[in-house]
Fold this sequence. Notes:
Largest sheet: 7 strands, mixed
Strand content: 15-25%
Radius of gyration: 19 Å
Shape: globular
Helix content: 40-55%
Distance between the termini: 9 Å
Order of helices and strands: HEHHEHEHEEEHEHEHEEHHHHEHE
Amino acid sequence: xxxxxxxxxxxxxxxxxxxxxxxxxxxxxxxxxxxxxxxxxxxxxxxxxxxxxxxxxxxxxxxxxxxxxxxxxxxxxxxxxxxxxxxxxxxxxxxxxxxxxxxxxxxxxxxxxxxxxxxxxxxxxxxxxxxxxxxxxxxxxxxxxxxxxxxxxxxxxxxxxxxxxxxxxxxxxxxxxxxxxxxxxxxxxxxxxxxxxxxxxxxxxxxxxxxxxxxxxxxxxxxxxxxxxxxxxxxxxxxxxxxxxxxxxxxxxxxxxxxxxxxxxxxxxxxxxxxxxxxxxxxxxxxxxxxxxxxxxxxxxxxxxxxxxxxxxxxxxxxxx
Length: 321
């Protein structure tokens, strides 16, 4: 794992290894690997259902513990406080918020861009036809999710500021409920929630992420776990790549497999999956440019407590496990 200092940790001269040693030892003594995920965590949902990690890691005595979260921010909060060891994919915005809070995280893997897998939706009979008409409107959005950045970036492209709209911070489930009962004028969401509302309600996409937000999803670990168990990260990385390839090569079978797990019909899942790349690749420090743009945008909007340098992170590199 390439070592870099973390924001919020001092003195920096101690070095990452010295700072992490107590937790790293604790992780070595604990055979249970705690993994957090959310409903949009397609690849880890497949891996979980197949028992893949249990089969691969079981012979070493490791046990897997799975923990579901409503969205990315509480997922990384749990990672930061030691509630879990590994995080399934979260939107590119979420690590920025965690980093601003001084979280000691390590990037493990990345899914390549899927910009159309998140969008601003309005009801089909809404008079709103373009993003510039959202001024003064109430919009449901999940805080720190990729859609949060999509909303801000889309407003800026249309000549508006985030403060020009009335943002209602809601979970995906609450956001949809508010949207369908007319309590908000628009809802910003991501797949599979986006595909679900498209197929089950009369809606119209006002704008998606194309040309505005790449929407790259990241897999992370606590920095201490990444240092202590690179062998586990290698297994997880390998299985994520396999699952991603299979999901794209066998879309119908994947949708049918996920349907009972997600409680959605296969057609909805197929629509959602068609917009996700599922291309799992290594994270490169020199490719975090959009992460920095996201951090700068949130800070300028007053949503981050301090500036964030997105290169001040730890990155686990495949082949070192």
